[in-house]
């Protein structure tokens, strides 16, 4: 997949490197040459540019990108202008960085549904979500082991955990399942999540639920990919 990371500070740099390590094509852009030079051997492409300049932004392969991530943090104005330009240029998936409540409000007003708060979400967690669209969230415990939230694969919907036999097939442990419910307040849709308790052999895997898995990252990815 192809990703464009705009802003190569600490968060953007870590994200761009991790996505490249996962095998994706990454274009990293920043207005500071020192940052661009630092990453030119570590990610697919780097470019020095002002992301608030419409002409410069039009030169990027935005239509081909699977997502554009605005990782600018220190300049809220530049971050919002960059996000607005991406919206104007018709980018299909925009992920904005939020460093204040006001910025979050503005992004929501621009109908940007995906945003990141680096204080709460590490670059590694975001990279894992981008690497596989079925992953909802993840937490890396060590170099080998992770806890991952992923959608119940369609082929297992309606089965019990015993019938799905995921532990024996993929060497992963299902810790629990999470049910999502939607409510509407003041014209806005609010999604609530609730865990169903410790998973048992008779736990039913319902369509739309989320599995919370523990295991080696390679085994979890194998489960997700083989279940597609």
From TrEMBL:
One of its GO terms (biological process) is potassium ion transport. Coiled coil: none annotated. GO terms for molecular function: monoatomic cation transmembrane transporter activity. Pfam families: TrkA_C, TrkA_N. PROSITE patterns: RCK_C, RCK_N. Residues 1-117 form the RCK N-terminal domain. Residues 134-228 form the RCK C-terminal domain. This is Trk system potassium uptake protein TrkA. It comes from Parapedobacter composti.
